[in-house]
């Protein structure tokens, strides 16, 4: 899971060791875990960008956060009330080949749970290979 602010700057990266036969359900569970990453300083951003490579889940989250959906199906989004805490939440589908950071997080989560908050500046906890991956992802769009 990779979270960015409205300018694309990395806010958090995390992974959870979840086992399920349906990868779509795993992606949906990861969306429900986002409140574990939210910090007060993140609310200063004009928006939150959630990146994912599962097009179906990203589209479902986009529909879920539309104001009209909250009004017509108020209980359906109970696990996603965290989206109401931000000015805007953008769910972006990023193809796996352009989303190496999230792919790296998913593979690391096979071994252990982890959470990196980038305002902490505790870069010792973040593997150097992750920084290299972030740089290569940015280079794709330069």
TrEMBL record:
Coiled coil spans: none
All residue ranges annotated as the RNase H type-1 domain in the record: 1-108
Superkingdom, taxonomy of origin: Eukaryota
InterPro entries recorded: RNase_H-like_dom_plant, RNase_H-like_EbsB-rel, RNaseH_domain, RNaseH_sf
Gene3D superfamilies: Ribonuclease H-like superfamily/Ribonuclease H
Annotated Pfam families: RVT_3
Name under which the protein is recorded: RNase H type-1 domain-containing protein
Lineage: Eukaryota, Viridiplantae, Streptophyta, Embryophyta, Tracheophyta
């Amino acid at each position: 899971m990779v979270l960015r602010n409205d300018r694309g700057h990395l806010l958090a990266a995390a992974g959870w060791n979840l086992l399920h036969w349906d990868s779509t359900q795993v992606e949906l569970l990861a969306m429900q875990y986002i409140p574990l990453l939210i910090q007060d300083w993140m609310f200063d951003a004009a928006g939150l960008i959630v990146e994912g490579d599962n097009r179906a889940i990203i589209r479902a989250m986009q529909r879920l956060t539309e104001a009209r959906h909250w009004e017509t199906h108020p209980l359906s989004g109970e696990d996603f009330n965290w989206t109401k805490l931000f000015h805007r939440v953008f769910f972006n589908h990023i193809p796996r080949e352009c989303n190496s950071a999230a792919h790296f997080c998913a593979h690391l989560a096979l071994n252990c749970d982890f959470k990196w908050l980038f305002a902490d500046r505790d870069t010792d906890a973040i593997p150097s290979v992750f920084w290299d991956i972030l740089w290569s992802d940015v280079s794709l769009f330069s």
